[in-house]
Design goal:
Length: 439
């Protein structure tokens, strides 16, 4: 099939390369000439394990090309995917749909008759039906159809999640669109992936609900961590015990600094904002609590850090391990690690941050922080080490060697991911959120 993919950011670039990889002719479209040039030159503009190989394979097959021209895309494709960003609106909790609308406006005049537009971006429920009206007004003779096909890929596992998803959800308005989507994904469906065909509103909501549920699970265990701190109980043992029940499951019950990134925080807010617009806000008002519990973990980490350096940050040197919002990613959008680093710096400490891959993005986001290219340099003469993003790299640190570099061997593991017994036996004082001092 001949597909176009509008938006070659994280979601679009991976989707375009994977669709070419399974045999489709794909044209990636973006307004950003530089991004297009990078991709066409086989250079991913972001860090994602395994993506470059897929990109190179797709380009070499001749099935993946790029353009900045919506007219060329309209002429080329039978199916047009919308993969642009839907960030949080400035000054409110709602989603900013201006990029989605810009794609629709640019594409509509060039649509060939019978074209199918498929949204993949995460949007508030009701967006597909609004876009359908918009396209019919802009291109009344095109007989275009609109479907929604949310994406569930995780950064760090994007290629794997696209080619071997847990489910494919499509919200369609016609039998023709349903058939097109089944044909398009046939190579993926062959391995038995569940195909859920529904209406666009349900499809839009599945995505928002999935991310909100994941966020709620994390905030639940972090609320329990707060209770553990007040009672001397151990949240890690609690999470393990809860997770043994298959109805609960252990995944996404990792307590600590909480969630960040470009998806979970904005999606819980967008869902509650949309629910408020629809007059059903009481049904999801607990999402405000999910958000509040999550944000509170950042201040809890700052407060514990202050306590560990004797009650004041003034004149203290703090090493921060991790800048990305999670490991295996160079994404620093709403990064809990950088937020904590900035708060501690504002409190008067000298903060030096290390990350294995996200340093460049972190420098752009927080130019006032100090950065180091290796762990030893970041930790030199530190009064406290904070472990804020659980890269595998940090699990391999030799605590005895690092003890000779810092001023005071004290570590706060805000991700509950280090073997603290090992650190203690190398002479470190250790602390973690939700755990007794000697856990
Ligand atoms: C999330 C969803 O997991 C994907 O299914 C979805 O497609 C994606 O958003 C999206 O909407 O595009 P992602 O943002 O890549 O994926 O990251 P996650 O792996 O979900 O992690 C989110 C945050 O939660 C990270 O900051 C992570 O450190 C934190 N987290 C995760 C915890 O604090 N505890 C956990 O147990 C799990």
């Amino acid at each position: 099939m001949r597909l176009t993919v509008f938006g070659t950011g994280y979601l679009g670039a991976v989707h375009a390369a994977c669709m070419a990889d399974i045999g489709h002719e794909v044209l990636g479209v973006d307004v950003d000439k530089e991004k297009i040039a990078c991709l066409a030159d086989r250079r991913p503009p972001f860090y994602e394990p395994g993506f470059q190989e897929t990109l190179v394979r797709a380009l070499e097959s001749g099935r993946l090309r790029f353009t900045t021209s919506p007219a060329a895309a309209g002429q080329f494709g039978d199916v047009h995917f919308i993969c642009v960003g839907t960030p949080q609106r400035t000054g409110s909790f709602g989603a900013d749909l201006r990029h989605v609308d810009a794609v629709v406006d640019a594409l509509a005049p060039h649509l060939r008759p019978g074209g199918l537009i498929v949204g993949k971006s995460t949007v508030p429920v009701g967006t597909a039906s609004r876009i359908t009206r918009r396209i019919r007004a802009l291109a009344p003779t095109a007989d275009a159809d609109v479907a929604w096909n949310p994406e569930f890929l995780r950064e760090g596992f994007a290629v794997q999640d696209t080619l071997r998803p847990h489910r494919l959800v499509v919200g369609v308005q016609s039998g023709r669109a349903d058939l097109t989507m089944r044909r398009l994904y046939a190579p993926i469906l062959r391995s038995g992936v569940p195909f859920i065909s529904t209406d666009p509103a349900t499809a839009e909501l599945v995505k928002m609900a999935a991310n909100s549920f994941l966020a709620a699970k994390i905030s639940f265990i972090n609320a329990m961590a707060e209770v553990c701190d007040a009672t001397g109980a151990d949240v890690m043992t609690l999470a393990d015990a809860l997770g043994c029940d298959p109805r609960i499951g252990r995944r996404f019950l990792n307590p600590g600094l909480g969630f960040g990134g470009g998806c979970l925080p904005k999606d819980i807010r967008a869902l509650s904002a949309r629910a408020e617009e629809l007059g059903v806000d009481q049904a999801v008002s607990f999402l405000h609590q999910v958000d509040a519990i999550n944000t509170r973990q950042r201040q809890r980490t700052v407060d514990l850090a202050r306590q560990l350096v004797g009650g004041s940050f003034a004149g203290r040197r703090i090493a921060v391990l991790g800048a990305a919002f999670k490991p295996n990613s160079d994404d620093v959008r709403d990064s809990p690690a950088l937020d904590v680093a900035a708060r501690i710096q504002r409190g008067g400490a000298q903060v030096c941050v290390h990350d294995p891959v996200a340093i460049d993005n972190a420098k752009t986001a927080h130019p006032s922080l100090e950065f180091a290219a290796d762990v030893s340099r970041a930790c030199r003469s530190a009064d406290l080490v904070l472990h804020l993003t659980e890269w595998q790299h940090y699990a391999q640190i030799d605590p005895a060697r690092l003890a000779s570099i810092v001023r005071t061997p004290t570590i706060l593991d805000a991700r509950n991911a280090l073997d603290l017994e090992l650190w203690r036996s190398a002479g470190w004082t250790t602390r973690a959120l939700g755990r007794p001092e000697d856990a």
